[in-house]
Every structure is written in C-alpha cells, then in structure tokens.
Known about the structure:
This protein has helices at residues 19-29, 71-92, 111-121, 135-139, 148-163, 172-181, 208-214, 237-245, 263-273, 286-294, 315-321, 336-342, 354-365, 371-385, 388-396, and strands at residues 2-6, 33-41, 49-53, 56-63, 100-105, 124-129, 166-169, 190-192, 222-229, 252-259, 278-282, 298-302, 326-330, 346-350. By secondary structure, it is α/β, with parallel strands linked by helices. The chain folds into two domains: 2-193, 3-Layer(aba) Sandwich (Rossmann fold); 208-385, Rossmann fold. An eight-stranded mixed beta sheet has the order 3-4-2-1-5-6-7-8, with helices on both faces. Helix 11 links the parallel strand 12 and strand 13. The longest helix is centred in the N-terminal third of the chain and has 22 residues, at 71-92.
Amino acid sequence: xxxxxITLSYINSLQxxxxxxxxxxxxxxxxxxVYIAKPIERRYKKKxxxxxxxxxxxxxxxxxxxxxxxxxxxxxxxxMLEYKFKKAINKYYKGxxxxxxxxxxxxxxxxxxxxxIKRRDNAKTYLLLKDIFPQNAIDLGMxxxxxxxxxxxxxxxxxxxxxxxxxxxxxxxxxxxxIKHNPKIDPSIVEVCPNSIELSSDTxxxxxxxxxxxxxxxxxxxIFVYGGNLGKPQGLYFMLKVLDSNRYxxxxxxxxxxxxxxxxxxxxxxxxxKPKNAVLIKQLPKEEYENLVKACNIGxxxxxxxxxxxxxxxxxxxxxxxxxxxxxxxDINTDIGKIAEANGYGFWCESGDLKQFNLxxxxxxxGKYSIETMGNKGxxxxxxxxxxxxxxxxIMNHF
Length: 399
C-alpha cells in the first residue's frame, strides 16, 4: 500500500528510534511505500523540502514554531498547520494515490487535509489517538468551555473522529473515554492500539560506571530517573516536593533529564537548594538518553492530578525495555498505574500523595521490593503487548 503518515513529530529518518519511527519502519519492512508529512519549524531556518531516505519519502513542511514556544505563536501556528500541510502535500505528493492515511494527535487540525485525500483516493483512515484535545487544555486551566477556542477546537475534534475509519487508543481507559464522550462515534471502530516500540539488541551499551561518572551520579545508591518532557501536563511541582522531602537521605539518588516549559523552574529549584542526591540534565540525544536510563534502577512518571482524560505517557516503554520497575504519581483517570500494578511491574499513587510515594521509594531502597523481579515482569509485559509487531497487526487486521 501507499501509506501517508501525517504528524507533528520530528522524524528525520526511519532509522531513528521512536514510537512512530519504529511503526513506520515496520510498514516499510513489510513492503509498503511510506510517505511522511511533518513540520520543520521556522527556528530551523529552512524552507519546505522533500527527501527520499531509508525507504521513505519525508516531506518537511515549514511552519511557525509550534512546540516549546509561547502560547500565542503556538496557537497561531497550530491553526495554520492545516493550510500549510494541504499546500505542501498537494505540491510534493502530487499524483500519488494513497491507500491508507495514518495520523496522530496532536494536532486535531488536519481534518480538511485528511478528508480531501480520503475522498480523492478512496483511502482508509486510521487515527492514532495520543492526545485528547481540547479537554486536556480545559483540565490544565488554559481556557474554559465558554471560550470560543473550546468551541472551535471541539468542532475540529468531532470532525476528525467522524472522518476516521478506525481510532486506535493507547489503553482501555482511553477507549472508554472516547466512546463515552462522543456518542455519535460507532464504538466498533474504537480499539486499543497502544504506544509501541521495536525491540532490538543492536544498541551499543556503554559501561554503567562510565555513564554514571559522566553525570556525577554515584553507583552505590538506588537510582530513580525521570526522563522526557518537563512541561505543565506532568504536574512537576509534585516531583519537586518528592525531591525536597528526600534531600537528606543518603541511600537514594534522583536523575531528572529532559526539556520543556517547566525546565527553568526546575533548574531554579536545583540552583537554590543544591541537593546532593539529585541531578538535573538537559535533554540528551536519543542514544545517550537510553544509556543513561539503562544505568538507573527505577523509572518515574508524573502527571498533573487535574486531568480528566486518561493520558498514557510513552516514556513508560523506555523503562520497561530496560527492565526497570515504574513508580507513578498521576491523576485518578489514567489506567497506566492500574495496569502496572495488575501486572506486577510498578506502583501508583495519586499525584499529591507524598507520604505514599515516599513509602514506595523507601520500599525500593530497603529491599522490600525486588527491582529485578519487577523489571523482568515489565519487560515480559512489553514483549507481549507493546511491540510494533502487535501495533502493526492491529492496524493491518482491517485491510
């Protein structure tokens, strides 16, 4: 099939590692022709261009800055995405008949582009639902349901669901949420198609002691790591409470690595408090980050407690791949913690419950919980449920 993938993700090659790159690489390996449409923000000072690379055509579409920028530019840039993508796809993919259109959220503003190609080519459409917007913005207090932005984006969201032949959600709770809050959707088209990765053993592993020494991390402590986006959705003020309440405990060490809108606040906390058992590391290249995670013992996940939508962060996969238990503090609506506890690879508490979270930390540090046993259970669950083979088959079962 000719497959068009529309995304906001930074995909520069199918050889990269990531939930979308891994899945598209699977499609390419199975003989499909992969065409990608993705943004290249104005900060990179490049015009729209296309390249054939690693068995895929990649169309880099110049846009305004839409990630890690101010709210005004992000808003305007998001609204303009549809026009930018439509114009570029018409020009650079002219004459190509697509059989399947894959697209992910965010954003929800590609409805006209998708609908036009679907009608023109009689293509099937599959939505990889990674973000439920605008409700997530409502949850975080960015605007209210009385704001015109809510009505505008909610209409876009409904339209996106309407033109989707199938909707793949990250977890059972996401399926339930979409069906409950969108009664016009046929429940039979909504299914679990989780975040997934390709498992491989070809990554070069640095010596653990060398990796830890590089970042001045002691190798005789129980090491907890949080890696990824440092933004408002993560509710990282609770993470800072965790760090502060453990500042003087010598049997544990915390590694915070990533970037995002909240990074300056976190950096200020580190500057003011100078914790001896924690380190803040700016976002690393993918391979360096993976080596860092492998050198740690327990992965952490944080989400803002105000969320009414069931988020399912993809950073979980990195932890499971490296056979690490997962410690989570989230809202009560996501099922990421329930699934972890039911399958023995993690612990969960509601964000804000500092006492319970620290009890879990203590349990890992004093040997109450077996890091190796829980890590192995997580790796098995990953192999059974979150590989690209599983996701590919879920999608292809429809075709």
